[in-house]
Design a protein that fits this description.
The chain is α+β, with helices and mostly antiparallel strands. The chain is built from 24 helices and 13 strands. Strands 1, 2, 3, 4, 10, 11 and 12 form a seven-stranded mixed sheet that branches. Strands 5-13 form a two-stranded antiparallel ribbon.
Length: 574
Amino acid sequence: MRRHLLTSTTALVLLLGMGHAQAGMDEAKTFLDAEIGDMSTLDRAAQEAEMQWFIDAAKPFAGMEIKVVSETITTHEYESKVLAKAFSDITGIKLTHDLIGEGDVVEKLQTQMQSGENIYDAYINDSDLIGTHWRYQQARSLTDWMANEGKDVTNPNLDVDDFIGKSFTTAPDGKLYQLPDQQFANLYWFRYDWFNDEKNKADFKAKYGYDLGVPVNWSAYEDIAEFFTGKEIDGRKIYGHMDYGKKDPSLGWRFTDAWLSMAGNGDKGIPNGRPVDEWGIKVDENSRPVGSCVARGGDTNGPAAVYSIQKYLDWMKAYAPPEAQGMTFSESGPVPAQGAIAQQIFWYTAFTADMVKDGLPVVNSDGTPKWRMAPSPHGVYWKDGMKLGYQDAGSWTLMKSTPDDRAKAAWLYAQFVTSKTVDVKKSHVGLTFIRESTLQHKSFTERAPKLGGLIEFYRSPARVQWTPTGTNVPDYPKLAQLWWQAIGDAASGAKTAQEAMDSLCAEQEKVLERLERAGVQGDIGPKMAEEHDLAYWNAEAVKAGNLAPQLKIENEKEKPITVNYDELVKSWSK
């Protein structure tokens, strides 16, 4: 029997070897001809040189079967269906790229962290988990990996400094823990054609006393929402706002994705407020979380946070379609493309590809959009120097529980799908930019007029104010799930905005206290602060030169400000 097993195993190895015998430069050239062409920042000779590096580096792993996972979005579908096959053909590594729901990715990751079992050889998970990965120390530091165990499989042409989101995936220890694979922001979306209609402009000016334009603050957004709601345009009833409110997990990221920071919650600081971040979580000088509630110096239930929730509730009720209240994120996403929404304050650029399709009511006959995207307006508590919105950064993560050889093979694939050879083409498919060199490619200058301001925004200095969740959040999976339940109570009317945020910060602190008691995050885990009132903590913040928690502003309806979109775009290029 043993001899029979050995013979079968030997035959299997030979078969695997034969199956991948053709992997090499011929396959690479076929891929470059069919898929890349001149859609790359590298010329053909440099593309071939990069492919040759992958071929050589992959030789020790030929025949291995590697599994990686990501959420299901257009960019990852392209990787799974096109780039994974190309990588396998070129390198001889049999790569399977699974696509599952975002929540399922986090669940698999948690299971691997808790069990030590190698479920996947690499994960594309949001950089929102950077604080989790840094504190639990179960993800490999890529900085250390690239310099040591993974040095022989790290592309010398990787060019980490070219990644526009590397600050999002760098921990307080200065090390890179994740490599961005795709990024998209949540911006302000509006009907450029309606905003430039002469009658609309005149009517708005007559009613509000200032020009209709891109709102700089929430006060102007509110006026514009009121102005358009109930109007008839092209025989359809129009709404001045769009959102969603169903008590569902997707309601959580509607708020953790930096809604509070847009209102002015937390402190100044890019990419995230310090010492208080946009979740309202405060850390000490050693990056140890000390609280979430105002009573501990946090800001999750402070005046800025409560104001942000109240505005969300008020606008949904007054200016959005009635059915929005019962919608989830995925149900609400296509609505602006249907042609009856004037503006949306919180719109993900991941929807761009679906918003520019021929034949849509929001697309002109020449393929140019009737809409534009612009920087988000900010709330009354917001100050210069604060982040202004959210940017998703799905990023490659290597777990320490993955054996070195498997991690090396997966790391080769991670670099392949983010390489300069393929990134321009991948970015044209998914419009989720990760490299500065790709953003500056001439093909995007040519395509920009059909993308509604996406390229202009990503090339602008404003871009740096849009960032993911930061390192103050010590356990993203445990804390993030608390948000949709608390906000859902406010959206349903079961709780006031203040009651909902009081409940949320208390639940967050229960998690922080459990982590502190368990000591699982060592000397960078939570260490809860003493409790005092808002006045005390505000005075302490001011004394230290910080903001949060801010005192309540009695008149939260500030002077409205708008800007002309075309002038705004011109100012970015100066």
